Amino acid sequence: MNPEEQQEILKLRALNVTPKQIARKLGLKASEVTAFIKEQAEQTARAKAQTGELPPIDKCLADTRCAKRLLFEDSDSLQNEIGGLGLVLVARTTGYNRYSVCTYLLDYWCLGLKDTIGPRDFNSNKYLEFVQNSYMNFPQGYQEITLEQAQAIVFGAIDYAKSLGFSPHRDFEQSRTHLGEWNGESQLKFGRAGRPFYISGPYDNFQRVISTLEKTVGVGNFDYFGGFEV
Description:
Keywords: DNA-binding. This is DNA-binding response regulator. This protein is of the alpha+beta class. The chain has 2 domains: 3-51; 57-225, no CATH class. The protein is 43% helix and 22% strand. It is built from 9 helices and 7 strands; from the N terminus they run H-H-H-E-H-H-E-E-E-H-E-H-H-E-H-E. The termini are far apart.
């Protein structure tokens, strides 16, 4: 494979031409083209890692109900709210058919970041499988959003929870960088009907959460469901 063919491969690949199509066009073996593309992708990823630059975004996702509620304030979504849990997924391309993925489980009504996973590295098949498994408990499915929207949801929910006295999940420092830099100006509306609404989870310290809310926003200024009367 000569330098002219290599340049042509890179040009065609930038146009999203598949390795098999490139091979047929240039009269090369598909395996040769695939190996060259993979090597170039890995070299690019290594160079970016050395400079501290994050890999490019492949896609950002949010469960549909969360996206409608926070990003679009859909009236039907607001009327039929049954809980304030949402899941944001951010995937970055780290090489040829290689991806690094983080997820952020959010209580955007009260507690902020409840759980986070990643970064985890996957090939294309495992990546798609991970996405499907991540959203299997969200009956409305998921939709693609922008990185800026993902940042506004995650960082905004965390900041809202901090204003109520709650810290993000302890693993957030591991997945925080994956989101990239954020300007800290989320305009999204958190809470339910303008108030914190705490729904008790199986692993929560109910009494501690209620006590924290009483201190930060005052008795009668929040709603809750579950646990026991205080």
